[in-house]
Write a sequence for this structure.
């Protein structure tokens, strides 16, 4: 049963994998899915109905989103999947993040004067890292799924061959990226036929992408990283000015990592480890906030402290975090409650801390986002939080001919020069500098929340704002919010630099605005709403499950 309304509360009986020694309060009955597109939700439902588990559904959903949301994720990008196995309660993080090509160099995007070359990290083949999502799909199916990859990819292949309707989001993305897209003949032929961008309601078919998916279905990861598809990818990239090699593709590896775990007032937060900044930043903020009785404070003071904690967590993101294979990070210190005590000492209740006064790095002056997320439960209690991305709208706006694959522009997520903001105004240091084979730092934060209350699965797109969105939703869940309230919550955000509090209309009352401005916060209203959160929650006492898709997007939920 697929529900077409974007915000739905679903009440079902569900057994969940509980902490050691705990007993399920309800029998196994139903499964639930929340994704950013109805067809992706249907793909997951189809695969679970065919006997697949949550991990098979994650493969189907991820591949389907590559077809129905090509502006947000796809085979040319990367992914993080946070997994929970019901049997034994094991949790793991599957890292299919992109990596820098072997010929990448530290200063490859700077001109002869050491200045960033405009657009070099965002547009065209040179902006693309080596994709990880196809390898991740094969890895999930082989290590955790029940069904063959061919079965799990079938819905996506069908969508690509039959065609899908252009959404309003796709139309907006094409408008934004049309200029860059015209420089890629294969992409322009598909999305700008006759020089005119597709509009909502048009139907677009993807025969080349279907063939690529069929190769992966037949040959697993080798269907993408070796053989004819790999040759087409490399030939297209190099003809477009990129630096990929066949060896770059053949060497790509998926990595399993231990998730980051933190606690806050009886709630356990399980989230993404480096090369994501999400888990460390969330843990940092919660450690800081745990020293306050937020419930006893005025709303403006609570938000002031949350903003100040965000400021410090994002400062640490900029200074310390990167690919663990390339940089030594002081994670024990960053996760220590004693470190949070020190952070807290620098926070004043009556005024904001100017970011420039914090020790760290300063931005160097320089002349939008897209990702996707889904949450899945199966009848056994397995669960997946998956966040996928090609970075900005339509990634690099480049498609190697014959592949149907839109390449990412995740090289922009590296720090191309200390203090130089990327496409999301994030700054960084050597910890996130470019090196061959290195994974760029990410903000993607697929997350589980666990407590005596129950469990929540959540995540969202939104670039640098992903972490703050997950944070606010987690705080709301800790205070008793349901899934619908979590996705609809009005959002605010601070990321160290720029030193402003971005906020959605309705995030602050007039009195709160006045109080925050009096403390010295610079408030900046967002031009549009942001994020597309997908949440599933389970209440331990009642056995109730709630699933909700962000009203800002066009997502859907289902049970079966």
């Amino acid at each position: 049963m697929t529900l077409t309304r974007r915000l739905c509360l679903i009440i079902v009986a569900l057994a969940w994998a509980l902490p050691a020694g705990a007993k399920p309060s309800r029998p196994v009955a139903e499964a639930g899915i929340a994704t950013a597109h109805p067809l992706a939700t249907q793909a997951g439902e189809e695969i679970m109905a065919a006997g697949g588990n949550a991990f098979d559904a994650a493969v189907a959903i991820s591949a389907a989103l590559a077809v129905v949301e090509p502006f947000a994720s796809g085979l040319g990008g990367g992914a993080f999947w946070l997994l929970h196995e019901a049997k034994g309660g094991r949790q793991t993080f599957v890292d299919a993040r992109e990596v820098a090509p072997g010929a990448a160099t530290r200063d490859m995007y700077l001109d002869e004067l050491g200045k960033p070359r405009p657009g070099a990290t965002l547009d065209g083949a040179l902006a693309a890292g080596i994709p990880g999502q196809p390898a991740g799909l094969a890895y999930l199916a082989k290590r955790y799924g029940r069904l063959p990859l061919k079965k799990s990819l079938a819905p996506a292949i069908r969508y690509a061959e039959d065609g899908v309707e252009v959404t309003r989001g796709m139309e907006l993305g094409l408008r934004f990226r049309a200029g860059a897209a015209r420089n890629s003949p294969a992409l322009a032929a598909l999305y700008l036929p006759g020089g005119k961008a597709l509009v909502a309601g048009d139907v677009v078919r993807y025969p080349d992408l279907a063939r690529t998916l069929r190769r992966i279905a037949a040959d697993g990861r080798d269907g993408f990283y070796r053989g004819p598809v790999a040759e087409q990818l490399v030939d297209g990239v190099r003809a477009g000015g990129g630096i990929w090699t066949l060896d770059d593709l053949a060497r790509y590896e998926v990595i399993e990592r231990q998730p980051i775990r933190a606690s806050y007032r009886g709630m356990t937060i399980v989230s993404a480890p480096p090369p994501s900044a999400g888990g460390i930043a969330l843990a940092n903020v919660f450690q800081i906030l745990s020293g306050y009785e937020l419930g006893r404070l005025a709303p403006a003071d609570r938000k002031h402290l949350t903003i100040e904690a965000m400021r410090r967590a994002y400062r640490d993101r900029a200074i310390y975090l990167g690919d663990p294979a390339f940089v030594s990070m002081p994670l024990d210190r960053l996760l220590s409650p004693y470190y949070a005590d020190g952070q807290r000492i620098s926070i004043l209740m009556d005024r904001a801390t100017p970011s420039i006064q914090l020790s760290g790095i300063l931005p160097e002056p320089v002349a939008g986002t897209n990702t996707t997320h889904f949450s899945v439960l199966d009848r056994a209690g397995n669960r997946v939080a998956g966040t996928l991305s090609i970075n900005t709208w339509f990634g690099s706006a480049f498609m190697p001919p014959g592949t149907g694959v839109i390449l990412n522009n995740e090289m922009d997520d590296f720090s191309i020069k200390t203090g130089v903001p990327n496409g999301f105004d994030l700054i960084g240091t050597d910890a996130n500098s470019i090196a061959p084979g290195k994974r760029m730092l990410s903000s993607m934060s697929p997350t589980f929340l666990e407590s005596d209350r129950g469990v929540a699965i959540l995540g969202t797109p939104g670039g640098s704002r992903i972490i703050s969105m997950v944070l606010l939703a987690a705080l709301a869940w800790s205070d008793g919010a349901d899934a619908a309230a979590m996705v609809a919550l009005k959002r605010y955000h601070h990321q160290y630099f720029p030193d402003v509090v971005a906020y959605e209309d309705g995030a602050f009352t007039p009195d709160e605005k006045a109080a925050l401005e009096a403390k010295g916060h610079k408030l900046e209203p967002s031009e549009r709403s942001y994020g597309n959160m997908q949440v599933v929650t389970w209440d331990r006492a009642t056995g109730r499950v709630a699933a909700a898709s962000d009203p800002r997007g066009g997502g859907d939920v289902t049970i079966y």
User: Anything to note?
Assistant: The chain has 17 helices and 19 strands. Residues 299-320 form the longest helix (22 residues).
